[in-house]
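seq/struct pair 1
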Amino acid sequence: MKLTTFLLAAQVIGLAQALHFYFDSSEKRCFVEELPSDTVVEGKYGALVWDDGKQSWEADPGLQVRVNVEDLSSAQVVVNTKGPHTGTFTFSSHEAADHQICLSTEGVGSGHKHVKMYLDVNVGPSKHDKESDQRHIGTLAGKLNELNKKVADIQREQRYMREVEEQFRDLSEATNARAVWYCIAQIVVLVAAGVWQMRHLKVYFEDKKLR
């Protein structure tokens, strides 16, 4: 029993950094929170009861906490739950309005007892707009398709440039080959002309000697 009480108290101590307030077990404490539309709210609470014998705040396993949340603009009850002395509650605001959060206790035995309540309310981001998300996804898909088309155009242009480059390289190689053969032909002609001139001069000088 002592271990159970210790664990229950430890759960409440985990909320030590949260807002805490005091009230009698017969009372109900309420707070007003102004919320924007489509907003998720998560609350954590923990309650301790004053023990006159121990002169300290103790966790009572039999204590129950009722949480009531009401949209003041429409008088609609958003949350109405009863749970153990520590727990959580979650709700979403449908419209921008003031929301009243009330906490009360039950099951504390006979007579009035003093209650120390910890409350931590976290207002989260707005809920996702599915239609907006779908439009955003559609926009991204359209941009992605445009990007794919541009990439395809760039690839097609690169292939064309490679083909032009290959044609230019083939033409350059053919031109270089012709130039080489032209040089070889010139060399052959020059050698043949030199041989012919030498033979012609030889015959000419031989004729001169004979005379």
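seq/struct pair 2
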Amino acid sequence: MPIEDEVVAPSSLQPRVYDSGESAVLVEFGVGYSKTVSLAILQISERLHGSHLEGYRESIPALSSLTICYDPLVLTKERLVAAIESACAIPLGAGAAARLWTIPCVYGGVSGPDLRDVAREAALSEGDAAALHASETYVVSMLGFLPGFAYLAELPERLRLPRRASPRARVPAGSIAIAADMTAVYPLDSPGGWHLIGWTPVPMWDMARRAEPLLRPGDSVRFRAIDAVEAEALRRRVAAGWLPTPEAPA
């Protein structure tokens, strides 16, 4: 049985802390995704990271939980739980400004073979479905599935669909996809069951040039529609070493 501690959290959230091995704890905030829970997780992670607590190593956000790694020879679990309580006690909404990325996207056609079906299900034209997808500013809720695979919330309700009944054996790197209330960019060639609506030449994960993925939890992301000519020009710039930089949020 896991060892469990209840902590007090803002906005009526009731997280519970479980041992996760000898040097980590899992802080659970419920089951399933919600915007309030996701923001709480990201801000609590940020506060712990900035606390300079001796023995704290890192926090790993997920959709409804936060894994916190620590050195048990330096930091006791009791002190860590107290630090979690302190982080939870601060009202939400006082987090640091997020990085804002604009990701160019070729929508539809061979770049987004499922856009036609998505548009039909939403009773929209392909152009309007693409414009609706690009109209939102998304938040990176977590990284998972593949290195650099960022779960971006929240997709407009009109575009929400369950995953494909038959996953593809290969989804090209750079594919922009949607499923349920999330959108994402595939960082690597891989199998996948999300609906492919576009493609970007911007790499989400490139170990040859940087150790970290492009996006990280808490970042904001917008998509900008481009045509095939601009996509090819950007692909050549990326091949020559160019990578985008984040903007300052408004």
